[in-house]
Amino acid sequence: MSSGNPRPYLNPYLAGFLLGLTLLCSFVILGAGLGASNALARAAAWCGLCLNPESVLASKYFGAWGKEPLNYYLVYMFVGVVLGGFVSALLSRRVQVQVERGASFSAGMRLILAMLGGVLAGFGSRLARGCTSGMALTGTALLTTGGVAFLLSTFVGGYLMAYFFRRQWHD
Amino acid sequence: MIETFFGSSSLASPAAFLCAFIIGIAFGWCLEQAGFGSSRRLAGIFYFTDMAVLKVMFSAVITAMLGLGFLLGTGLLSPDSLYIPETFLYAQVVGGLIFGIGFVIGGWCPGTAAVGLVSGKFDAGVFLFGALLGSFLFNDFFGALEPLYTMENMGVSYIYQLAGMTPASFALLVTAGAVLAFWVSEMIEEKFKFSLVASRSSGLWVFSVLIMMTACGNLLLTSRQVVLVSPPSGKELLQQIELAADHIEPEVYAREKLAGQKRITLVDIRSREEFEEWHIPGAVHMPVRSLVEGLQRFRNFDRIVLYSNGPVHPGQAWVILSSAGFRNVYIMADGLQGFFERVLKPASLRNGFLSEAARREINLWRTMFLGSGMAAGTVAPLTSGTVTGP
Predict the structure, then answer these.
(1) What's the predicted TM-score (pTM) here?
(2) What number is the ipTM of this complex?
(3) Quick check: B35 pLDDT over 90?
């Protein structure tokens, strides 16, 4: 896909500082923090509306978003994330089609794990009212109790299960 | 004073969508540059092989936290113009656990998976598809999940309030903790050879010093009550008084409380004895003499409403607090007396004609503030005769 070697990543503290400034801009301009999982849930509601509008509109959770669930600022933010990520990956020559995994792990199994992880993360983020961006990052920067609780329990959940899924990264 | 889209209730306008889109571009760019378009790098934190997630995440949290602390502390940004996610402790702990497990199994989280997908990672696309399914599942089982979803609603709850600290001093503590975590992560990556870490991480030296200085500066700023937006002059204060911007009507307070508004701190400034005898449910007690220090942690955050028996003491306190730079203080108009007359007095004892809707509203107020059983009662819990003094 890309010519030449990929450029090295940005210094993590500088990247974090810039990410923090982006979050701060979001607070100052929008009056709200960053978010990602909300857009996915709204995309799910939109897919549902295409397939079976009556039941989705009648459902208590998706139904509350009405007939145009995509009409929301976090959906536009998500589209921006996709574009910004793509431009950055392209300029840094990091676009490469692959199934990312350890060399000794099968691609099929890795995709099954990615799917399972996605289901759990999608479900968990709805229950917690946010994900790493909207709850852990935004909530903790605001020093809210829920944000800090979510951040800590995310790491607890991750470290508890890390051992059982370590093989997917073994070379 | 900065006006946000949320503050002007226009987060659903095309202009806000455009801004969100542009902020999203910067967001995606930062994530990709940090290397978060790679699930392997993300998962590294769970195996102590690559601590980038911790470094980037905490640097971002500290930067935004200190920036916000500065903007709110100086009054450049009003707390009312910020959307603060509410705390539902059980849902967030259980949701966080499930989310963390999903993170370690899938190797992605929603935002990073979007960046991973456009970097060509097929597994990121599959993860995103799974997240859509997970959202569907949540919607399908929402009926069964709703009790957990809404359990232990703490409203807008700040961790520093639970710790009994001011925002700035808590932020300093978090900053110091983050600096420690950064250095420990570097040590982990270098297999605990300090000399290697210390000589290599010049960026970390600079960043550590910078954020610690900013955190101390913020603390100094708020403790000395420096206000960058110049403190209101006597003329401005008088103007606010004339515009009645200094007080809140008891009915308005009752209506907002009933609607679930949690970002109001009600402060009872009568004597401790009077407070213990009876106070408006939810009020905290604070003697007049310690108001400036006592309210410091609510300063320019949530709305502060002062009440006493009458309007005199709260009025005097309002002037002092406002000239000390507090911009979020209001007086309960007509004091406790007014609250009894205008909110708690049973509909049956009121003069003049009351519509059915008004009666119902009064009953709701009485239920909320006095408990059920008082709704349609004919006798007030305390007659206004017991209310004396200023």
Answers:
(1) 0.75
(2) 0.96
(3) yes
